[in-house]
Specification:
Arc Repressor Mutant, subunit A, binds magnesium ion, three-stranded antiparallel beta sheet, Rossmann fold, five-stranded parallel beta sheet, binds adenosine-5'-diphosphate
């Protein structure tokens, strides 16, 4: 695998070398695939769900007869979008002989029309699909799955940001997909869901048919000691020395939330200092917060005063308990219990905060650290 300039990528997955641990999670998904079970992965945003799926796919790359397809549902807003995305991400990639593929698809599908498009920049061809507007998306979904079922070997299909289907105006999407999930013998599914909290996930999932029939995997933060070792090693490979104390500080400051740990390490690595001291790292953290402060001031305008004050109080506790209790409210001068209740619900709904085992945190770690100081 090729070396990269900075060993702490902050967008997407690069390669196993730059991916910290997640061994048991990877094994769990692979075991599921091998034994004919589907898996649902849930976690906070930016904890590493997408990275994990790509890591699993990387392991399957060398497996003969297994083909992996990844779909990010985040941009989709309807069943028609889902159909087009599914067609493009699976059918459009099945055969490298595109002319043959086009002929076959044209014969097979009645309402999905494939077209070859060429990338404006690179000129690389890709297959796009259009869907007859007056045909039910359901019908095309059925055809796509029928086509995939005819394929030799094993197919692994990952639906990232799966909770997005709840936003479609068609409310039967989940039940509809489930019928295909149960039928397709050669397809294993991975569903990825960004949840506010495990409790909410459990609660919501009770009424959702899918989850009952899949293995659940709740992705939590990478273990402290393992992540510390990884950080120190990656700096060392780049001829930089990071003390245990600094690695500990980075992990704690970032609450072990993967994206933020990666971001801070990426920034520190970029500075090129051979042996940064603790003071240097503190300054870097302040610099990072400073950079974002105009965005944070803007949040203040978008939230009500009650919401803002509550969020600040939560940030200061860094894992606030009993935020509706008299003591918390008095200490932070938050007004009446009912107004705090309203603000709390709004902040949860906007995903500005999340709760974990009865403790509340500001979702964005950097915002949380900034609020602590303002
Ligand atoms: N195990 C890991 N080791 C190193 N970096 C990781 C790991 N998991 C995720 N990342 C990085 O953290 C960031 C957020 O991960 P991502 O998978 O996009 O989160 P999610 O899909 O849960 O929102 C990405 O930049 C990714 O490269
Ligand atoms: Mg993701």
């Amino acid at each position: 695998m090729d070396k990269i300039e900075n060993p702490f990528p902050v967008i997407a997955y690069h390669s196993p070398e730059y991916f910290c641990n997640r061994q048991s999670e990877t094994d769990q998904i692979l075991e599921g695939i091998k034994n004919g079970r589907n898996t649902t992965v849930t976690a906070l945003r930016r904890m590493g769900k997408t990275g994990l799926i790509q890591h699993v796919f990387q392991q399957l790359k060398s497996k003969k007869g297994v083909r992996c397809f990844y779909l990010d549902l985040y941009p989709t807003t309807s069943q028609a979008d889902l159909v087009k995305l599914l067609a493009k991400s699976t059918l459009g990639k099945l055969d490298s002989n595109q002319i043959k593929l086009m002929r076959e698809l044209a014969n097979f599908f009645t309402h999905l029309r494939p077209m070859i498009q060429y990338d404006q920049m690179s000129g690389a061809p890709s297959v796009e699909f259009t869907l007859d507007a007056n045909v039910q998306a359901e019908h095309s979904l059925e055809q796509i799955f029928a086509y995939l079922e005819k394929q030799p070997g094993q197919i692994v299909l990952a639906f990232d940001e799966f909770q997005q289907i709840l936003e479609y105006s068609e409310k039967n999407t989940e039940a509809l997909l489930q019928t295909f999930v149960q039928k397709a013998k050669n397809i294993r599914f991975i569903f990825v869901d960004s949840q506010n909290s495990m409790m909410q996930a459990m609660f919501r999932n009770q009424s959702r048919p899918f989850y009952q029939s899949t293995d659940m995997l709740n992705l939590v933060a990478i273990e402290h000691d393992i992540y510390r070792k990884f950080i120190i090693e990656k700096f060392a490979e780049g001829k930089r020395k990071i003390s245990d104390a600094i690695a500990d500080r980075i992990l704690d400051w970032c609450r072990h939330h993967t994206y933020y740990v990666q971001l801070l390490c990426n920034r520190l690595y970029t500075k090129g200092i051979r042996q940064p001291d603790e003071w240097y790292v503190e300054r870097l953290m302040a610099e990072l917060l400073d950079e974002n402060s105009s965005v944070y001031y803007n949040y203040r305008k978008l939230l009500t005063q009650n919401q803002w004050l509550l969020m600040k109080a939560i940030a200061k506790e860094n894992g606030a308990r009993q935020v509706l209790g008299g003591e918390f409210i008095r200490k932070n001068e938050l007004g009446s219990t009912s107004s705090v209740q309203t603000a709390l619900a709004a902040l949860l709904d906007k995903e500005m905060i999340f709760d974990e085992e009865g403790r509340f945190y500001v979702y964005d770690v950097l915002l949380s650290r900034w609020l602590e100081q303002h």
